[in-house]
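DOMAIN: structural biology
WANTED: fold as tokens
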Amino acid sequence: MFNEKPLPRVGTHEWYDTVGDVGDRLNWLRAAVLGANDGIVSMAGILIGVAGARASHGALLTAGIAGLSAGAMSMAVGEYVSVSAQRDTEHAILALERRELEELPEAELKELIGLLRHKGMSRETAAKAAEELTAHDAFAAHADIELGIDPYVRTNPWEAAGASAVSFTLGGLIPFLAIILVPRSIAIAVTVVAVVIALAVTGVVSARLGRAGVLHALVRNVVGGLLAMGVTYTIGRIFGARIG
């Protein structure tokens, strides 16, 4: 009547793809929020510290551009290396598991039965479930139950690197624009307010995505950002006074 597309049957490749896509999107969104949060805090710390040293407008602009560039590249390279290393490890583990399934199918079946029993199934239920899972897709069953890996979803390191760089840059632009575009006399105050609001937003979003307590995440984000800005501002004032 409503011409709805039926949901894929649990255990099929289409089901893995559907569940994997949802989980992957949530992970990407969560990573983007955390990347933006890093950009906000990092750039706010740099700029407030430089402003605390009573640097010129040109020095603030230079520090901001350098901080955005260095931070985005650092995030991108770090994410690329991390995801690539994870992919290499998972690929090696999955290749070993596939080889074991080909060479030792009976031993792998017994291992799967043991894993299912460890999860609380009776011997009879575990044996029947293991046989059905093996008959359907032994590799996917072992990858999921034994290794905790989705064999059909692989994160692209280039996409991860790009997403981290973009999210850091977007977050970092908030304190950068706040301190650059307003009169010098109120620049620090405006930046602090902008950062607090931005961190409150990322705290709420991250809590919603993780289904955690909103208030705790919000307070943690804001207090952490204020602490970072307070420390760097104090350092900037001390070193600025000594150098000046």
The longest helix spans residues 57-103.
